[in-house]
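Feature request, filed as a ticket because there's no other form

It would be nice if the structure record came with a short human-readable summary line next to the tokens. Right now we just get the raw output. Example of a typical job, pasted below so the devs can see what we mean:
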Amino acid sequence: MKITGNTILITGGGSGIGRGLAEAFHNLGNKVIIAGRRQQVLEQTVAANPGMASAILNIEDAAGIRSFGEKITAEFPALNVVINNAGIMRPENLLTQPADVADAEAIITTNLLGPIRLTAALLPHLLKQPHAAVITVSSGLAFLPMAITPTYNATKAAIHSYTQALRYQLKSTSVEVIELIPPYVQTELMGSRQAADPRAMPLNDYLGETIEILKTQPTVTEVLVERVKPLRYAEQSGKEKYDAFFQQFNDAMMAPH
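Raw output as currently delivered:
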């Protein structure tokens, strides 16, 4: 992927990893458009980064995503990179889960259907660009699930699988497909507690390592910071060690801090 000279759309770009990526790419000389449903957050981010643009997008609205794709490509015809970053993460107690599974459905709609729908809406445009990229954001939890967030883990595992299939289908085109696989990072994805959790990777450290990988490994397909590699490759150690790691990891995440 080219690291500069792009026109980049980032969903969920007003906070957390999305905002961090938006600012990093903006500072590298890219035209960045952040999208999300919270106008105030978008406006604050754009105000802090002159030259950045924003657009309202409800990633849960299937019809709205299609019309958004038409509008954004008309307004920014040079658009050549989309980063499917928007996501939600909610704890679920499966023993007391409501019958309507509303949280699970919202997580699937946002984290899985959202990126699939937006990619479908933008792909015809991206295929016309001389250099383009679709970037997905999965998670280390796609490979070693955290028991308290079962649907979130499942959506991220599905995004990993979808990304691999998309990359294979687009291998003869000008569109690269890259997967960011973050570890547990200090953001407010699960509330302010996560942002201050010493067990989580500091956001600036994650962003710095991620951008360095993209700079130095131009053909990278999976962006793996060192901290996420134990999760990404957990199954390679064999079932017995994986099961022990799974138990240890989940016991540690459930422990008070």
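Something like this underneath would help us a lot:
The chain has a mean pLDDT of 95.
DSSP finds nine helices and seven strands in the chain.
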